[in-house]
UniProtKB/TrEMBL annotation:
The lineage of its organism: Bacteria, Pseudomonadati, Pseudomonadota, Alphaproteobacteria, Sphingomonadales. Keywords: Membrane, Transmembrane, Transmembrane helix. Gene3D superfamilies: MFS general substrate transporter like domains. This is MFS transporter. It is found in: Membrane. Pfam families: MFS_1. One of its GO terms (molecular function) is carboxylic acid transmembrane transporter activity. It is a multi-pass membrane protein. It comes from Croceibacterium soli. The chain crosses the membrane at residues 56-79, 86-104, 116-137, 144-164, 176-195, 249-267, 287-307, 314-333, 345-370, 382-406, 412-434. Residues 21-436 form the Major facilitator superfamily (MFS) profile domain.
Amino acid sequence: MTMSFNEAISREPLKAFSVATFAICLLVLICDGMDAQLLGIVAPKVIEDFGVDRGTFGIAMSAALVGFGFGSWGGGWLGDTIGRRWSLALATVVFSLATIGASWSEGVWDMAAWRLVGGLGFGSAYANAITLAGEWLPERWRSVGVTTLSVGTPAGGLVVASLAPTLVDAFGWRGSFVAIGAGTFLVVFLILALLRDSPSYLMARGKPDEARRAAGKVLSGDVELAPDRHHSDRGGAAVGVFDASNRRLNLGIGIAFAAGTLVAYGILNWSTTFLTAQGFTFEQASYAVSVAGLTSIASSIAAGLLVQRFGSRVVVGGVSASLFLTLLVLAYALEAMPAVPGESYRYMVVALIGLSAAIFSAGIASFYAIMTYGYPSSCRSAGIGFGIFVGRVGAIAASGLGGALIDLGEGSLVPFFAVLCLSALLISAAAFVVDRHVPPARVTKKPAALAGSGLS
């Protein structure tokens, strides 16, 4: 029987190799998050050691964001060229060794250089882990799996936040970088020993013999593999990210991803600042940010279930509208806040921040599901990398301009939240511009002959 790998694996029960691939990719992203967020956690110690002010140290803090953007795009292209497995291993080597290297920094610019290199690895790992895991999952598990992977980095932040105080007490901030970097480097051996490029990718690269051997890890019958079919197919020729057939996908995801990350980093990076200015203590403001982190993780997983059930167009449309309304209510609550807010008022504000984080995280997780579905195998890693790259634009804009918008209000948060609300509305570009949405469950239940036509 001849069929594509996507058709064949979607007929099979979930196999151990697919689960193992997903688990290792999730572990890589948790390690990615540990290395990426370590500097932010030990920043007070590093600032004291370097003898610089917080503003100057921001150069080192933002360097990883820049590297992440270029790494996701370049690493995605590399994954489409030499394979997701080798690219993921290389990315892990880069970010783990860069974390160890950062321990040798003697000043802000040294640290910024190491973080820039580490960021290249962080971004490449993200694009390739999501692509590789998604290609090994059956269609009914793919959206849930991809959105769950997106919580790996914040989960890594929670892990390193719990480990860092002990490591710093025992080894100092420099020793903590060495310990975390060395630990994450060990994951490289798991990647090389256990992971394999997917048959979908191998068939797209013209390697049918390798594809058949790889497919044997999850397919029980004798299946003659055919190249996967996709919306953008033109006589079997491979297409690149910027092929005309991807124009609406690129435009919609680009606008929505940048807008979504602008809201995310605006809330997560500046909540402590605007809450303390509005009467919260530092501890109370920090608690609000930690609540936002927890709701982000939960909602990212839930987003996969919603996309699977209702389709991605409905989900991102709902995200845009609900986020806009939630930010409006949050802005009003902060503007109307008394000089010394009561406990119930503070809890209401914290709940609104947590709800905002849950909504924008669900949207960002849904973007990964759309990109995994929408881009063909020939450019899937690069396509996901492109989306992440554009998302960094929003993240850097929020990090760099958020303080200026808060100052512009001269005590009012209206300018800050006006930009966030506009960005929330722009997320709807993913609903109305993108032309390749994950269909709802009732639509995907179609004859076997057509089962593989949506995703290569």
